[in-house]
């Protein structure tokens, strides 16, 4: 079965240099925003030149690449810059569960980008007026009402305790349990407001928006630039302290924690095992380092490699997802336990999110620290947070960690 496709090939694509656009979220003219921003650079986009919804299944990344190859190879492309992210680009978001439907790729009509001193505007199709005219100024959400999602806090702690018992009985080494919160606003939630607040407060994260999924993930799943790839493995977390001295003490505790080091090792080892067959050389550090964000402290391992042959970034995604950082290990038993204990559909939370261009370059993160707007009611959204569970996990501590991970999106909504 082919993906459901609504596209008008061949596409006509024109990229032109433009003056520095300044704040990228502020240039989005409509609420139907697409975005990928890191330290103020990246791409934002709007409109739809083509779109596909990809069925669940083990070959979904292959299907996605085939659809894009057909679309991009027939396109008429005028791209004098030839940089990653110029020319036609597809934004994508895949469901966490490989069997679940709902993964999407969108080729926007307008793409505004800034990278390494260059700025550009790509238009797909015939231009219609000034695409940067602010047609609908953003309005911050008001009248927010919060409620539990699928599980209450005590019920989720019980699920964590159950997972710990399963792990201690030898069924698996680690699983990752997520919970959700629901928010209701007085009027439709404008993604541009959330993007602006997230990029301001979390510039070191990768702020994204794809088809109503908005967030700021600290985890770079894969970046492909030519034959070079980069990844950032995060696993092992503590909330930030109240003072610099407290932060330092917590960082040292994290580095010396057998529980967190074991959780991190599961994720780093899996990334090494997944990427080694694809690479001519690969560097994975022997010891993790500390990554400090405004809300939490992570154990982090930056990974770098060179691909052994031409591979799209989607090919590398297929090898990596789902990682132990968002699923557990071994993958099969961990995924089965998630389906049993979470009692919810994660949708695209904890799935790959990012972009790919016509050369196969792209950047993809894991959709963490995010919210998903309700497509039937844009005044409603679900927020997600998850924690890695191992044999010595404490349910109360995991709940506190989840609360800290909700903070970026709560702040973005509340201002």
From TrEMBL:
Domain Chorismate-utilising enzyme C-terminal: 155-405
Annotated Pro residues bias: 1-11
Alphabetized Gene3D superfamilies for the sequence: Anthranilate synthase
Keyword Isomerase found: yes
Pfam family, one: Chorismate_bind
One Gene Ontology molecular-function label: isochorismate synthase activity
Stretches that traverse the bilayer: none
Reaction(s) catalysed by this chain's protein: chorismate = isochorismate
Region (Disordered): 1-20
EC number: 5.4.4.2
InterPro entries (alphabetical): ADC_synthase, Chorismate_C, IsoChor_synthase
Source species, domain of life: Bacteria
Keywords: Isomerase
Family: Belongs to the isochorismate synthase family.
Annotated protein name in UniProt: isochorismate synthase
Source species: Thermomonospora cellulosilytica
